[in-house]
Design brief:
By secondary structure, this protein is α+β, with helices and mostly antiparallel strands. It is built from four helices and six strands, in the order H-E-E-E-E-E-E-H-H-H. It has a four-stranded antiparallel beta sheet. The chain is globular. The two termini are 30 Å apart.
Length: 132
């Protein structure tokens, strides 16, 4: 069964409680990953910690310029990115995916479930719009 509604609610609740959605995807489920207030990075859908590998070298000997490491880049991006538009983009991607499934589906029970989930996602877009 498709759990998009529950997944989106879980992500929205995390945002409401102060967690940060990162502009990175979980390597397992491809959903956005989050950082909690302690700095731990995790996927709320897989319920797993996510490790980000960072390059140790921050200096390029060829041109004597400092190269920012991944954590510096992520901190700058996170400050500039408004989370709610990102969440809205994620929901739109899920709507597009479900629509593609719906176009090809012939089983009426699955069509009913897909339609229900699409309606819930559309409502969720409206809820996110209220937060923006």
């Amino acid at each position: 069964m498709i759990k998009i509604k529950e997944d989106a609610k879980k992500m929205a609740n995390l945002l409401k409680t102060g967690y940060t959605m990162l502009n990175l995807a979980c390597p397992e489920c491809n959903n956005p990953i989050f950082r909690n207030k302690s700095g731990d990075i995790f996927c709320p859908i897989c319920n797993r910690k996510v490790l980000i590998v960072d390059q140790i070298s921050t200096h390029d000997p060829n041109n004597n310029k400092n190269i920012p490491n991944l954590s510096e880049i992520n901190n700058k991006k996170t400050k500039k990115i408004d989370i709610y538009p990102m969440l809205k983009d994620t929901i739109h991607a899920k709507i597009k995916y479900l629509n593609q499934m719906l176009e090809q589906e012939k089983n009426i029970d699955i069509i009913e479930k897909l339609t229900y989930n699409l309606i819930q996602l559309i409502k969720l877009v409206g809820e996110v719009d209220k937060l923006i």
